[in-house]
Amino acid sequence: MQRWLVFTMLAACSEPSESAEVHRVVPELELTVPKLEADTLRRYTAALADERMQGRGTASAGGRRAKAWIAARMEELGLDVQRQRVPLIAYETTVREMNPDAIVHSELASGSHAKAWPLVDAGYGIVAPEYGWNDYEGLPVGGAVVVVRSGEPPMTGSFEGDALTEHGRWTTKLERARTQGAAGCLIVHDPRGAGYPWSVVQASFSGARFAAAPGPSQPLQIWGWTEEMPDASRLRATFEQRVHDIEEHNIVGRVGSGVAPFVVVTAHWDHLGTGPAGTFNGAMDNASGVAALLVLARAVKERHATKPLVGTVVFAATAAEEVGLLGARTLAASMHADDVVAAINLDGMNVGPVTPTVELVAPGRSTLDDLFATAVGRQGRRVLGDQSPSGGAAFRSDHAPFAARGIPTLYPQPGYSTSANPALLAFGTQRARRYHTTDDDYDPSWSFEGAVADAKAIYEVIVDLADAEVRPRRVGH
Ligand SMILES: [Zn+2]
């Protein structure tokens, strides 16, 4: 039977091994595996990554179709389903003329604008007193557009060794430029510092931009990206601006008692929509995560029917992640942080073979890591910390707004890079190549075995938490 494929394969071996997808597994595992079938994951991923969903862009017809599809699946499962409003402002900036060349957006009011600003080099655009760093010290930036490099300064490594801190995030740099009174901010893209190539900037920052309503109190007249450090002393731009209110929705399904402890499971439904390059179907990112969310919801619902949960599991297909984690921010802000024992994020499931290791993004912050490591360990596998922390994934998905509120978070990723198995390495390469491109299409050859195994471990953590048997503690800083 397809559904047990992974676990029969795992059960075939008695010794753990580093070399390949050979794992020890406890014999009773099969008995406790909920209905986490690879076939369902495949079907759901294919449906969400279908051309009809048009890349599930924020405020798009394809996005509306995706939301309706997800809500229908949750209702079929008998979940208590709500559409949580996510009020946004959309900014559409159409540049007529500009010098130097850049991808830019504006937060000015609707209308035609013709402007010029002095350009001021503001280093990395970072103010980090805890590291004794201030790029803005003595720099007159009022009325100017600051030019800042992406990422963090190459000190001895960076602020936290190789790991990108919040200071290196482009969103932090924009907020810093704003609070320093700059008129605008241009970020010079460095693929190494940012964690992704220029093509990702082009794909991700074309089209409308969105902000949480009612919009920023200190609007940036212009902001965006350049590929190279401009040598011009002024930025000139003529552009048409259209600003309007829109509403997006998190699709939220609850299972359980209706009271605390709450376990939140997020998977963003949105992706990049369509653009000049074509449709960004986002099969891995993040049709696969929403598919896993639904499969987990069914398993937890079945468990609750046989043995009621003490607490409540909130399954949230979140909106507007790609445009700034805006749906997750709304969701996190709508909950009492003290009642939420964990926020588990699914973003880019392992659609390939089972990996000997599972990597944690932003590890070491709570004992939730240990719970997950135990569940993964029962499968004869191992948990590792983030193997590419310089990519800044710690701040780049929907767990981040929960972490910012002090809630323990779990964001597992497949350990492709730490395997010597060529098939797994190939999956890792494939995934990196597809990231935020129009190539992230559903592939019928995917086995989804890895996602089944990972979801199984996540399921165990969810149930332990919702049974109120354990409560993760924060550790470290
Ligand atoms: Zn994603």
Architecture overview:
It is a single chain. With about 475 residues, the protein is α/β, with parallel strands linked by helices. The protein folds into 2 domains: about 1-85 and about 250-465, Aminopeptidase (3-Layer(aba) Sandwich); about 100-230, Glucose Oxidase, domain 1, CATH 3.50.30. The chain contains 13 helices and 19 strands. The strands form 4 sheets. Strands 1, 2, 3, 6, 7, 8, 9, 10, 11, 14, 15 and 18 form a 12-stranded mixed beta sheet that branches. β4 and β5 form a beta hairpin. The longest helix is centred in the middle third of the chain and has 24 residues, at about 285-305. It is globular and about 65 Å long.
Short description:
The chain is of the alpha/beta class and 477 residues long.
| CATH-assigned fold name of the largest domain | Aminopeptidase
Low-pLDDT runs: 1-35
* Largest beta-sheet details: 12 strands, mixed
Give the tally of β-strands: 19
How many discrete domains? 2
The amount of beta strand, in percent, is 15-25%
Rg from C-alpha positions?
23 Å
Q: For the residues shown, what is the average pLDDT? A: 88
Count of individual helical segments: 13
